[in-house]
Amino acid sequence: MLGVGAYRTRNRPALSEVLPLPIGEMSWALTDHRDQSVRPTDWAGHPVMVFFGFTWCPDVCPTTLGDISLWLEDLGADANRLIVALISVDPERDTPAVLADYVSNFDPRIIGLTGPAEEVAQAAADFRVTYRRVDKDGGHYTMDHTAGVFLFHPDGRFASIIDFHEDRRFAVPKIRRTLS
Amino acid sequence: MNHFLLAAALTLSAPAAMACETVAIGDLTVEHAWSKATIGAGRPGVFYVEITNTGSTDDALVGIATPAAGMPMLHETVVQDGIASMPHAMSIPVPAGQSVQLSPGGYHGMLMGLTTALKEGDSFPVTLTFEKAGEVTVNVDVLSLRAEGPDCADAGQ
User: Fold this and answer.
1) Hey, what's the signal peptide range on this chain (chain B) (predicted)?
2) Which of A23, A72, A160, B88 is the most exposed place for a label (fewest CB within 10 A)?
3) ipTM beyond 0.85?
4) Which residues, in sequence order, are CB contacts of B75 under 8 Å at separation 6+?
5) Where residue A164 falls among pLDDT bands split at 50, 70, 90?
């Protein structure tokens, strides 16, 4: 019995350290780009697509948001129930007003989420995302962050990750599988 | 329709006219220079371009300069173990007989310290410095934040 117990404690946490929690077991509280508070329970019953980023970054984030906008166009009205959220890893610079300005450039179904540093950290922990501040010359800083797009079924179970630069031919069917 | 007329018609109608220019210096051709609109001037802009080396000698892009930004730099987006980071690139190789793209998700110019926000439809010059070929200036078109690249008749993207 001891052997089995040890086996389980070694292996089960390892799995859960890698995969995002089901949405319903998450505990963050963030604010969207319209200044509305958002909690994981608000997403109950909806398929969900989330990625982490920051509006200051000139390359990865607009590219990902552009890709997501194209996927949403492909899916059309089928994706209307899909929650699509960018969670900022840079809440110091990404206020709700900045996020509003930013997401207005992309598909209107994309929402921006930010909040106090500890709530962003909680969201990152729940999604098993890593991020860190990198200071650059001249007092500037940038953020390294997990670049994948996370998909969840309507019951909150984690479905899959769309990797950065994954081909649309694979991304759109992955999303479609979460919609029913 | 001959190619010249077709190209001329597209150049007149395309919003990304300048980005479709090709500028040559020595064995290098530089084309499809474009950027994305920014939110205000406090955030960096981005610079993308395509460089082709038709010669037999390797070259490298070692720097960029522009009146549009006080601190332009070369960067590379690197995704390792799922984590995206953006290290400074000291130089970008342009090997003999090859094309190199500064394009979304890879090498790019990062325009820090913008003098003014970049708006869709604007254009600005960027001077590229190559290790061997020297300096060449291209006009850069500002496209929307959503753009994937300029809409040129010959664009390889």
Assistant:
1) 1-19
2) B88
3) no
4) A59, B86, B87, B88, B89, B107, B108, B109, B110
5) confident
